[in-house]
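Appendix C reproduces, verbatim, an entry submitted by the partner laboratory led by Prof. M.T., so that reviewers can inspect both the input and the predicted structure.
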Amino acid sequence: MKQATLSAVALAIGLATAAVAQPVEAPATPPRSVTVTGEGHVRAAPEMARVRLGVSETAETARAALDAMNAAMGRVLERLSEAGIAPENVQTGQLSLDRDYARMRDGQSEPEGFVATTLVELRVTDLDSLGTVLDAAVGEGANRLEGIEFMLADRAAAHDEARRAAVADAQAGARLYAEAAGVELGEVLSLSETRADFGPRPMMEMRMAADGGVPIAQGEVEVSAGVSMVYAIE
C-alpha cells in the first residue's frame, strides 16, 4: 500500500515539474498602425422641395372652428391642384382642435372659443412653380407656413459620391502621415463609416421665382459622409 502511495506522489511531482518547465509564450505584439478619418461633401442644386403649410381658424364653438377650417382647406387643396400639385404629392400631416388660449385676458380662468388647425405636406417637383404654389395657397386661405426643405431627387447617388470622397480624403491623410513619419503604409486593417448627413446649406441668394410668385432662395443641398480607416505601417 505504501509503495502505491509513493508512486502516486512521484507521478504528481513529475507532472508539476513538466508543467513548470514548459516555456511561457509572450503576448503577441499588436501590429503598428495609423488611424485616419476622412470627410466627403457633395453639393448640388435642389431638384424638389417639401413644404408644410396649413390653415388655422378660430370660432366661438368647436363645430364652427372645424367647419371654417375644413372650408378654407378645401379651397386651398383645390387651388393647389389647379397649380399642378398631383394628389399623391399632398399628405395631411397634422390635425388639431383645441381651446383658444390666445384669447385669455383680464384674468379669465378659461379661454374663449376654439381653434382648429390642419397642416399638409406638399412635394413640389417643379421648383420653378414653387413661388406660384405658395402664392396660390395663401391667396385661398392658408395662414400657416411651417417651413420649406429643399431636396435631391436621388439622395442615395449623392451619398455614394460623398462616401467615395470621404475614403479618398482618408487615404490622402494616411499617405501624408506615413511620409512625415518616414514609414510605409501597409494594408487597410479596418474601415468604418462615422456619419452621414443630408441637409440644405444656408440660402445663398434671393431670386424672384420665374413665374413671378413668392421670392424663393433655393441655395444648394449638401450631402456629407465620414469614414475612419486604420492602416498597418511597415
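The first strand starts at residue 33 and ends at 44. Additional entries are available on request from the coordinating office.
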